[in-house]
Design goal:
The structure is a single chain. This protein has 165 residues and is of the alpha+beta class. The protein is 33% helix and 28% strand. The chain is built from six helices and nine strands. The strands form two sheets. A seven-stranded mixed sheet has the order 2-1-5-4-3-8-9. It has a two-stranded antiparallel sheet with strand order 6-7. The longest helix has 13 residues, at 152-164. The radius of gyration is 15 Å and the shape is globular.
Length: 165
Amino acid sequence: MPKKEASASRSPAEGGAAPKFELESDSGERITSKDFAGKWLVLYFYPKDNTPGCTREAQDFTKAGARLKKLGAEVVGVSRDSVKSHGGFKDKIGIGFHLLSDPELAAHRAYGAWGKKVMYGKEVEGVIRSTFLVQPDGKLAKAWRSVKVDGHVDKVIAALEELRA
């Protein structure tokens, strides 16, 4: 377990500048952190398209889309999957936001969403399911690491409501 924490310690600190990114989206366009200047951004990292937990998480963020938009927030999902895979996943379950492809793991590493974790009792290196709430000024307002999918979106909304109050 200490190694997992060491991985998280490389993550950006709340209150500090959120790492910048530029990645290709499911639509084939380049999306950068600058595209969200002046807006709240919910940036979440997930392991793999079309898997049960990742599907539920994407569905939960999609269902909460109107509430998040009303709070001035946009959602973006990031995984290692290809743009083609993202497009199929998005169409299959009706995801209402951009999915970004990070095959080189640049954004994953910058946010501390890649590292050692324990899976089925074995230590492996992989995606650490994480969500980051970025303020309109580009600072990291809140970070959730080693996310459990069920109930997570509600926690993100509650934090956003509290920060905006």
